[in-house]
Amino acid sequence: MPLRSIFLSPVGRYFRTKRTFKQAANYAEKKEKPLMMIGDPCSGNYFQFMSNWFPNCDHGDITIDLYGREKCHRMDINDMDSWRSFEDNSFVIMETGVLGFSEDIASVASQIARVSGGEFFSAGGNKDFFWESILYKTYSKKLNYTMNPFDFRESIAYTGRRLGRKERISINFSDLIDGA
């Protein structure tokens, strides 16, 4: 079981991110809306060499990441004042697992719903019992959640779990859009 958490979960997430990015980029192009990426594709991978040698996604028209490199808009996703700089329904948004660092995931999701007008994709985080219980601590002590993949065209509930195998999270994304 530990080998699955160490190798298969991150590799699965790599391919899920690659697939989700293509869907989000194609959707944004079709809708003629800019794409906002949450998460620097140049960093932040458990196996960094995979991102360096085999990128799984690209930057969006804007990419936000607290520790992002030169192509990124450095922003803390937990800073609600920073979110106010983006207009309502102005981007298609895709995130790469960064929402796991949310301090209040419902508030961050609410801002994503407002800025995206509901057009939101998530590649989700690493998944399995060992990762959610213990192994996440080897990545970052600031990681709070692991969220499931999400495609607004297929689901209304954005779900996941608080790390440490604590409570399950379920955010009704359609309610956030209606409230945005």
Low-confidence stretches: none
Q: How do the strands line up in the largest sheet? A: 2-1-3-4-6
Number of H/I helices: 6
Roughly how many Å apart are the termini? Answer: 42 Å
Strand content: 15-25%
Q: What is the domain tally?
A: 1
State the total count of DSSP E strands.
8
**Topology as a string of helices (H) and strands (E):** HEHEHEHEHEEEEH
Helix content: 25-40%
The helix/strand class is alpha/beta
- Oligomerization category of the chains in this entry: single chain
**Rg from Cα:** 15 Å
Mean pLDDT score, rounded?
A: 83
Overall 3D form: globular
How does the major sheet shape up?
Answer: 5 strands, mixed
Salient structural properties:
single chain; alpha/beta; three-stranded antiparallel sheet; five-stranded mixed sheet; 17% strand
Structure, explained:
This protein has 180 residues and is an alpha/beta fold. It has one domain. The protein is 36% helix and 17% strand. It is built from six helices and eight strands, in the order H-E-H-E-H-E-H-E-H-E-E-E-E-H. It has helices spanning 2-31, 48-53, 80-83, 105-116, 129-133, 173-179, and strands at residues 35-38, 62-64, 92-95, 120-122, 145-147, 150-151, 157-162, 168-172. A five-stranded mixed β-sheet has the order 2-1-3-4-6, sandwiched between helices. A three-stranded antiparallel β-sheet has the order 5-7-8. Strand 3 (92-95), helix 4 (105-116) and strand 4 (120-122) form a beta-alpha-beta unit. The chain is globular. The protein starts with a helix and ends with a helix. The mean pLDDT is 83.
